[in-house]
Design a protein that fits this description.
With 151 residues, this protein is mainly alpha-helical. 51% of the residues lie in helices and 9% in strands.
Length: 151
């Protein structure tokens, strides 16, 4: 079944930009201040995870990732462990050391080596969050006026 798109839908579909959804807030009067690109560690780790058969779009689903990790061979699981050891990020440290603000880098390697499938799935979810490109928007003009009171 082929649907006929409206002109604005066709234009939206042709736009290759990952931030194409920003057109609607701009029309509403918002202005893009800055964008945050994904972390380098997360990008490198995503390549490793995709090479062992995980889908980048499903990193946010802990249940799906757990199921895929349980079905993996020991060799593939070892590559996942090695990838997390090689590409450290502060957010990954927080998965093991939630009581410490920045975690213990020295103990991180030991924790990743003996991490369970559930812990690896949570780490992969954190990696998926780090892969998101974030845009920060503010209103171009303020909506209300500041009323000064007489003293």
């Amino acid at each position: 079944m082929k649907l006929k798109l409206y002109p604005y839908q066709a234009e939206f579909k042709r736009d290759p930009s990952p931030l194409k959804v920003l057109r609607w807030p701009r029309k509403a009067g918002m202005r893009k201040i800055t964008t945050q690109i994904p972390a380098k560690q997360a990008l490198a780790l995503a390549e490793i995870l995709e090479s062992v058969g995980l889908d980048r779009r499903m990193f946010g689903s802990v249940g799906h990732v757990e199921q895929r990790l349980r079905a993996m061979s020991k060799k593939s699981l070892g590559l996942v462990h090695a990838g997390f050891i090689r590409h450290k990020h502060g957010r990954f440290l927080k998965e093991f050391f939630s009581d410490v603000p920045f975690g213990h880098v020295a103990d991180y390697e030991k924790c990743v080596k003996k991490a369970s499938v559930e812990q690896l799935a949570r780490l992969i979810k954190a990696c998926g969050f780090l892969l998101q490109q974030k845009a920060y928007l503010f209103w171009a003009q303020s909506c209300g006026r500041i009323i000064r009171q007489k003293a």
